[in-house]
Amino acid sequence: MENGQNTGQRWGILYCPKVGMWRRRKQWLRIQRALDSRRVAYDFVQCESSGSVERLVRMLINNGYKTIVVAGGDSALNDAANCLMEVEKQVRDTVALGVIPNGAVNDFARFWGFRENDVEQTVDWLVCHRERKIDVGCIRFTDRQGRRCHRYFLNCVNVGLLADVMNLRRQARKLLGSKTLSFLVSLLLMVFHRLDYRMRLRINGNEVDRRVMTLCVGNGPGYGQTPNAVPYNGQLDVSVVYHPGVVQLLGGMWLLVTGRFLNHRCVHPYRTREVAVREAKHAFVSVDGRLVSMPDGEYKIGVEQEVINFLIPE
Prior knowledge:
The chain is α+β, with helices and mostly antiparallel strands.
């Protein structure tokens, strides 16, 4: 990495490789060829763990880089956005965040039209440097240790079933090692697990007090659960899913896969600036696909409008 005044003209590339040494090198070489063929001036850093993304993004910002591109998935992009939100606004406004999709899940990149299998097209769009101010969501809560916490998100917050699946998957992976096997085992365990949670919610003045299977609050497409959400209207889309029967559950999964999730009779959609979760006992919470500490008591999910410069396609 270079130091000095020239870093403002160079891109800082944060490469977040997938598992597998051969694939790591192969994908990076493809990205490198695309950058070099377009004569992009850049410096490259590689993260070795999920916990290092925010540290490396902060390092790039402190060294004067004005264009920071994350070659990674939704979780890495979430870490980068959280790092940007923690710096002073006058600094954040000078930085543009871009993405080259390279993760297990690339939902936010896909929303804009970026595709993992078309690195060359992605780099062509990034070179055009078309910026758009985007919104970020934020969940604010107190954890079980009494600490006041917050976490920003680009895509969505899930409360309930889907976050619970992620928790089971994490526990199974510790025992089994394999990501695929742990995912299959976690789905199997859900057959014997709770499928709904007592929740009390306040949305646009409406009170929801009943058993809910899952709550998705989306600043973006929410992995298909908030398909109409866009990260630039100052609003959050909310899907409250009541507990369906087995046949309805299977039908809901099909509608989710085919992009018609909101058509399911057990899905109740809202659009709002804030959701107050007054009670959701024992319900896990995930932010952009990653579990966060279990909240203690009431917590709120809101949106901050047009706070990050994001590079979008031409």
